[in-house]
């Protein structure tokens, strides 16, 4: 589809790692282990080139991605000027995640959440067997490659993406409901999301690796930013 693939993560230099170790010498072993595990995983990732930013992007997708079940959802906020209440929304962030591992495989930032924008997200990555959405009417106008499971009753089929979008609001200051920070343009908004989502997906992939080895999780998503 010609969508840009964004990979912001870069291999850290030895100097950078040495500084982290020097800072953490007086802290717990688990924190030092976090740096080691994060550095090892980062060094193993081969970066790809950034071909440009668009309002709809595919992102770094793990080789472990299971294409059986994708979930879609949208959150809203504003750009350009502070709105006095949430009903003053003028910007939407639409995301699509894989359930295994839980990673954001495509997203869009737009002034509307129309079926056309949602269609671009669906078309941006290889098709899934089942797409799970809530009852938003816009999904009815999307041509899904697989089966569309639209739950009008509750969030049982979209609870993972609801949690993922909650993570976006938690970690990104410009998406917090009680925040004075907001983005002046869609381009800035999109760039911030690109950086965070790239780190979020690599964190999810590293977490899967540790679980397979039955090892304790020693790092967080912040170690990949």
Describe the 3D structure.
The protein has about 220 residues and is of the alpha/beta class. It folds into two domains: about 5-50 and about 205-225, no CATH class; about 55-195, 2-Layer Sandwich (Nucleotidyltransferase, domain 5). It has five helices and seven strands, in the order βααββββαββαα. It has helices spanning about 15-25, 30-45, 115-125, 160-170, 185-210, and strands spanning about 5, 55-60, 70-75, 90-100, 105-110, 130-135, 145-150. Strands 1-2-5-4-3-6-7 form a seven-stranded mixed beta sheet, with helices on both faces. Strand 4 (about 90-100) and strand 5 (about 105-110) form a beta hairpin. Helix 1 packs antiparallel against helix 2. The protein is globular and about 50 Å long.
Give a short synopsis of this structure.
The protein is an alpha/beta fold and 225 residues long.
Can you give the helix content as a percent range?
A: 25-40%
Report strand order across the widest sheet: 1-2-5-4-3-6-7
Please state roughly what percent of the residues sit in beta strands, choosing from under 5%, 5-15%, 15-25%, 25-35%, 35-45% or over 45%.
15-25%
| Unreliable runs | 1-29, 41-55
- Please identify which CATH superfamily of the largest domain we are dealing with: Ribonuclease H-like superfamily/Ribonuclease H
* Straight-line N-to-C gap: 28 Å
Biggest sheet, open or closed, and with what strands and sense?
Answer: 7 strands, mixed
